């Protein structure tokens, strides 16, 4: 594992909602060509971290620095939500899938390339005149969409209404849509939620493929420990808005603090080892995986 | 001269508070519905208009059967107006909004605007388009001050009646919302409808009740406006609805005390604007306030900031 | 927005399909009729009738009785047709399928319509009255198409569209009367003014939740009218602006005796003067303006901006996460919609030769909105059909004119309950990888797709 190549540098991130502290002085790093997993029990503040990163919330305190390999540094906490994707190339998916359900699969991927196509259409003027430069850009956009559709075997269903796809395909389409914005950092909010074991395996392959072929960083919130342990290069564990552990999957798995956070303080001393092997269990013990990131306060 | 200026000011204050009470009562209906199902009930202005018509019709019925005791007549007008208007409020929700829960985002709004158009024209067709005049029922009042140039500050019994009734309603209403189980269910649904449903709150009934409560208050506002101004027509719901909604936004939509406060402020602004500036543009002034509030303080005076759930 | 919560109809749906219990239906109808009786009693049964300066109470028991009886029977029939169980879903499904089939011939229907529209003045039945009505109809079609950009594509509920129509009409009237500029100069300027108003109004409000936009536009429509009535120096108040120059055929007027040194249209062609010439010219003018609006929308839907609008309508948060600037995107839809409203307003001004604030009431906004909503949000053909139903049909049924708005309102409610996206709401993708009706036939992928389609079909049943 490389130690350089820091893509995202989160420093002293704190988020308060009124009196409730959702995230408390959180610092961590995510690196390029790595999958970083953000895990923790329900209400630990994982989704809130995402919402701060992608501009849906303004952090109370803290610095979120993105080292864009091509464009330089961006301070995300100072940017409007849509500009974070537009300029800093950070893309995300949502815990409750947010596709454009009445639009076709292909159209979903075209909307993801909105900014590039707008520029190519010269803010619609060139598009209305159907200039060759716009036609070229549109063709390229369709090619990119085709590439991703083939990756997740949705090519044949490109003209379906996105809302008609089965759940697992909707999840994967959302990831493709995020990839069509050509991000340097891809933030995935529980991509494996609701998938069956086979789909979950396919997802692992897709994510590893993205990491290795696109050379970008992936930040992942996940409840399913099997996914986390199999594919992540680096795990950050949150509990009650604080970081309690940070390291490789193996290190984290054996960290007593993590085990305590997941199973409470009262566990017998000799239990941990067995428990550690079984860490995927808490995702069921903690309900269905609905985590509103403490944002309701 | 200074005295008469103060007197003029005082008179506008009294008028403004009266008008404000009426707006406040309507605004509560907007704010409650918004709080619980998150939509603007465009038809609420028409519910108020229906309340005003009911008070006129009830008054005529009372005249036909020969009742001339003023307190009794007022009581009957109040109760009859409340009951029938509540029926309208309930029906509107049942027909136009309930089937659309969880539907396409714009559907309930369009349905509401359709309901508003339908109700307005229903009253126009059934009751006629001409304005309905009503002779004063409560007359007389206190003269608080008589200036050297003969200018007086008056507080009519009617205005006093409107104030007292508003305060009484607010007290009763606050009691219902904060102390009764009905009110608790209402507040629970407002916070989290799904969860409230899971723990056994009858969500449909609670939403219906919200509409009924809003309609009851609008009916009282309709009675008040009929008594205060003595003329109504089928079109009054439109502007009053606009202003009451502005009041709800100004006070902070979703907040009940905010709605009343907003109503009073809008009433005062309108009275003073008419008194000191051009009366023709008083509606423009209210609208300007709405836009300004939306730009600079979308949460209103007493509202809580909305946290976007992603 | 609202999450779905089990509705009472769920229990009814659980009943065996095909069976309905008569006592239950009777009871339900009786309850409905009871509610109707309560509602109708003070308004249908009684009437506060104006008698000179006084009010007198009239009773209309017969009307009251019939109204309640109609509600009872109507409810009964609905129950019998299993309104509460699957019939509603099925009828909506059937309609959707029909709509989809119908829309497959969109292009042909549109072409046939356009040919008919271009030849209309030559048909034997096309007298002055018919062409006049057709012109009015086309104004509403154009307004509907303009508003369709805002409501149908971008999903922004604009309840004061008539304000932009008014801005267009008044700017045209003022420019044409004060500077004596020709129609072809004033028209774009009027559109530009309307678009500017759209931007000024939209900028502060479009950042907020959708419902706020609705109420602000509603207020704005009313405010424009108040200003038009009261700003005497410019708008001439309630008296309106008269003697607005009529359009000319590229400088050739439609007058019997043109001004000194100019030539009239009939002289140009060397034919006799006929007052129909101007009427027909106006008809073609609005036809072309409307078709430009249509062509613009059809084209723009396939452009990134159009897809952006539709995406915003579907999910604004997702749009933001994809780097789209939601405010600018909405603003562009709002301004372009306003611009077409302004064009239509200019045409209205030059056609009437006289405008006053009375032409720009909320009712107009409501009619235009109803055209968009009933036709099917986003559907160009739907707008034409709805405009036909809402503008032409009332011409035939003049005796029911009084009930027109009432029926509008009720229709809006019913259509929303029945089909929340309007009658013709089937939507074709704006860009395709496969031809329409494509079914993959080979490989593992094909099996997967077919299995899923079968599952979908089973679910639909």
UniProtKB/TrEMBL annotation, chain A:
Gene Ontology terms: cellular component: plasma membrane
Q: Which GO terms describe its biological process?
A: D-alanine transmembrane transport; L-alanine transport; L-isoleucine import across plasma membrane; L-valine import across plasma membrane
| Keywords on record | Amino-acid transport, ATP-binding, Nucleotide-binding, Transport
UniProt-listed InterPro entries = AAA+_ATPase, ABC_AA/LPS_Transport, ABC_transporter-like_ATP-bd, BCA_ABC_TP_C, P-loop_NTPase
The UniProt entry, under PROSITE patterns, shows: ABC_TRANSPORTER_2
Supply the SMART domains for this chain: AAA
User: Which part of the chain is the ABC transporter domain?
Assistant: 8-265
UniProt key word Endoplasmic reticulum: no
Give one Pfam family.
ABC_tran
Q: Tell whether GTP-binding is among the UniProt keywords.
A: no
What SUPFAM superfamilies does UniProt report for this protein, alphabetically? P-loop containing nucleoside triphosphate hydrolases
Q: Which GO terms describe its molecular function?
A: ATP binding; ATP hydrolysis activity; L-isoleucine transmembrane transporter activity; L-phenylalanine transmembrane transporter activity; L-valine transmembrane transporter activity
Family per record: Belongs to the ABC transporter superfamily.
Q: Any idea what this protein is called?
A: Branched-chain amino acid transport system ATP-binding protein
Task: Tell me which species this is from.
Answer: Caenispirillum bisanense
Higher taxonomy: Bacteria, Pseudomonadati, Pseudomonadota, Alphaproteobacteria, Rhodospirillales
Automatic annotation (TrEMBL), chain B:
Q: Per the record's keyword annotation, is Phosphoprotein included, yes or no?
A: no
State the family named in the UniProt similarity comment for this chain: Belongs to the binding-protein-dependent transport system permease family. LivHM subfamily.
Annotated localization: Cell membrane
- This protein is called Amino acid/amide ABC transporter membrane protein 1, HAAT family
Highest rank taxon of the organism: Bacteria
Citing just one GO molecular function, the answer is: L-valine transmembrane transporter activity
Q: What is its main location?
A: membrane
Q: Name one GO cellular component term.
A: plasma membrane
Q: Which GO terms describe its biological process?
A: D-alanine transmembrane transport; L-alanine transport; L-isoleucine import across plasma membrane
Q: Which residues form a coiled coil?
A: none
From TrEMBL, chain C:
Nucleotide-binding keyword on record: no
Q: Which GO terms describe its cellular component?
A: plasma membrane
Residues annotated as transmembrane: 25-44, 64-84, 105-123, 129-149, 156-175, 181-205, 212-232, 279-298, 331-354, 366-393, 400-418
> Which positions make up the signal peptide?
none
Q: How does it sit in the membrane?
A: Multi-pass membrane protein
UniProt subcellular location: Cell membrane
The record's annotation in Pfam families points to: BPD_transp_2 (PF02653), DUF3382 (PF11862)
Keyword list, A-Z: Cell membrane, Membrane, Transmembrane, Transmembrane helix
NCBIfam families xref list: PRK11301.1
Q: What is this protein called?
A: Amino acid/amide ABC transporter membrane protein 2, HAAT family
């Amino acid at each position: 594992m490389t130690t350089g190549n820091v893509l995202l540098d989160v420093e002293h991130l704190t988020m308060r909602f009124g009196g409730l502290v959702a995230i408390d002085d959180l610092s961590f790093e995510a690196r390029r060509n790595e999958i970083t997993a953000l895990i923790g029990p329900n209400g630990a503040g994982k989704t809130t971290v995402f919402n701060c990163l992608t501009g849906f919330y303004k952090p109370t305190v803290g610095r979120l620095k993105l080292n864009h390999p091509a464009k330089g540094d961006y301070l995300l906490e100072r940017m409007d939500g849509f500009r974070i994707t537009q300029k800093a190339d950070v893309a995300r998916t949502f815990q409750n899938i947010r596709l454009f359900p009445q639009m076709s699969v292909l159209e979903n991927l075209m909307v993801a390339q909105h900014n590039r196509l707008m520029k190519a259409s010269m803010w619609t003027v060139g598009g209305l005149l159907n200039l060759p430069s716009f036609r070229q850009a549109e063709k390229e956009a369709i090619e990119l969409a085709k590439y991703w559709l083939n990756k997740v075997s949705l090519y044949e269903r490109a003209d379906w209404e996105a809302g008609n796809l089965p759940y697992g395909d909707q999840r994967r389409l959302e990831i493709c849509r995020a990839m069509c914005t050509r991000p340097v950092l891809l933030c995935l909010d529980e991509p494996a939620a609701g998938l069956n074991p086979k789909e979950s395996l396919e997802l692992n392959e897709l994510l590893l493929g993205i990491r290795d072929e696109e050379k970008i960083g992936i930040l992942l919130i996940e409840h399913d420990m099997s996914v986390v342990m199999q594919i992540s290069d680096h795990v950050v564990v949150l509990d009650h808005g604080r970081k309690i552990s940070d390291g490789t999957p193996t290190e984290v798995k054996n960290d007593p603090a993590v085990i305590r956070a997941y199973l409470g303080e009262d566990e017998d001393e000799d239990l941990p080892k067995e428990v550690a092997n079984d860490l995927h269990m808490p995702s069921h013990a903690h309900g269905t995986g609905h985590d509103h990131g403490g944002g309701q306060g | 001269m200074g005295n008469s200026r103060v007197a003029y000011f005082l008179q506008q204050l009294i008028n403004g508070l009266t008008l404000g009470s009426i707006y406040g009562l309507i605004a509560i209906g907007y704010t409650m519905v918004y709080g619980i199902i998150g939509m603007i009930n465009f038809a609420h202005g028409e519910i108020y208009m229906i309340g005003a018509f009911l008070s006129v019709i009830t008054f005529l019925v009372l005249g036909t059967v020969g009742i001339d005791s003023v307190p009794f007549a007022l009581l009957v007008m109040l109760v009859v107006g409340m009951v029938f208007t509540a029926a309208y409020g309930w029906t509107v929700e049942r027909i136009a909004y309930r089937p659309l829960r969880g539907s396409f985002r714009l559907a309930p709004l369009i349905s509401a605007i359709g309901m508003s158009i339908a109700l307005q024209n229903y009253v126009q067709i059934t009751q006629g388009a001409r304005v309905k005049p009503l002779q004063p029922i409560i007359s007389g009042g206190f003269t608080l001050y008589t200036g050297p140039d003969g200018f007086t500050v008056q507080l009519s019994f009617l205005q006093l009646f409107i104030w007292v009734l508003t305060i009484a309603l607010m007290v009763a209403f606050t009691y219902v919302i904060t102390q009764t189980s009905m009110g608790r269910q209402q507040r629970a649904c407002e916070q989290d409808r799904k969860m409230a449903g899971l723990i056994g709150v009858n969500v449909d009934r609670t939403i219906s009740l919200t509409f009924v409560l809003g309609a009851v208050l609008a009916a009282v506002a309709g009675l008040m406006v009929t008594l205060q101004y003595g003329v109504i027509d089928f079109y009054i719901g439109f502007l009053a609805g606009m202003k009451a909604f502005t009041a709800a936004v100004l006070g902070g939509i979703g907040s009940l005390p905010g709605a009343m406060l907003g109503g009073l402020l809008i009433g005062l602004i309108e009275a003073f604007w008419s008194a000191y500036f051009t009366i023709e543009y008083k509606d423009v002034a209210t609208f300007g306030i709405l836009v300004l509030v939306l730009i600079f303080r979308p949460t209103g005076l007493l509202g809580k900031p909305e946290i976007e759930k992603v | 927005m609202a999450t779905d919560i089990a509705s009472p109809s769920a229990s009814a749906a659980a009943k065996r399909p095909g069976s309905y219990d008569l006592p239950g239906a009777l009871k339900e109808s009786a309850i409905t009729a009871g509610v109707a009786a309560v509602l109708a009693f003070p308004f249908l049964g009684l009437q506060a009738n104006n008698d000179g300066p006084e009010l007198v109470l009239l009773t209309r028991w017969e009307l009251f009785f019939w109204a309640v009886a109609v509600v009872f029977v109507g409810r009964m029939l609905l129950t019998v047709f299993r309104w509460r169980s699957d019939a509603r879903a099925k009828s909506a499904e059937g309609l959707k399928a029909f709509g989809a089939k119908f829309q497959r011939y969109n292009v042909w229907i549109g072409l046939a319509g356009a040919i008919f529209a271009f030849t209309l003045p030559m048909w034997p039945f096309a007298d002055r009255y018919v062409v006049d009505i057709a012109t009015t109809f086309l104004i509403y079609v154009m307004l509907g198409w303009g508003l369709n950009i805002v409501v149908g594509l971008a999903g922004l509920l604009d309840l004061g569209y008539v304000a932009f129509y008014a801005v267009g009409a008044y700017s045209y009237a003022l420019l044409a009367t004060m500077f004596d500029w020709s129609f072809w100069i004033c028209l774009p300027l009027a559109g530009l003014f309307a678009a500017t108003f759209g931007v000024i109004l939209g900028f502060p409000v479009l950042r907020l939740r959708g419902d706020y936009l609705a109420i602000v536009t509603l207020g704005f429509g009313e405010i424009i009218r108040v200003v038009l009535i009261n700003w005497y120096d410019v708008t001439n108040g309630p008296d309106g602006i008269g003697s607005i120059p009529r359009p000319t055929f590229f400088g050739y007027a439609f007058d019997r005796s043109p001004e000194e040194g100019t030539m009239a249209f009939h002289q140009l062609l060397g034919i006799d003067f006929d007052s129909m010439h101007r009427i027909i010219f106006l008809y073609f003018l609005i036809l072309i303006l409307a078709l430009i609006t249509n062509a613009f929308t059809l084209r723009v839907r396939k452009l990134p901006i159009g897809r952006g609008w539709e995406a915003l309508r579907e999910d604004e948060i997702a749009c933001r996460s994809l780097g789209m600037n939601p405010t600018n995107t909405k603003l562009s839809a709002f301004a372009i919609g306003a611009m077409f409203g302004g064009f239509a307003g200019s045409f209205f001004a030059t056609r009437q030769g006289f405008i006053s604030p009375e032409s720009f009431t909320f009712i107009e906004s409501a009619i235009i909105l109803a055209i968009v909503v009933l036709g099917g949000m986003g559907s160009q053909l739907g707008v034409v059909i709805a405009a036909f139903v809402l503008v032409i049909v009332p011409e035939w049924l003049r005796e029911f004119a009084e009930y027109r708005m009432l029926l509008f309102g009720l229709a809006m409610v019913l259509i929303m309950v029945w089909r929340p996206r309007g009658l013709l709401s089937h939507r074709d993708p704006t860009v395709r990888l496969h031809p329409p009706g494509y079914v993959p036939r080979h490989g593992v992928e094909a099996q997967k797709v077919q299995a899923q389609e079968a599952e979908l079909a089973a679910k639909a049943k």
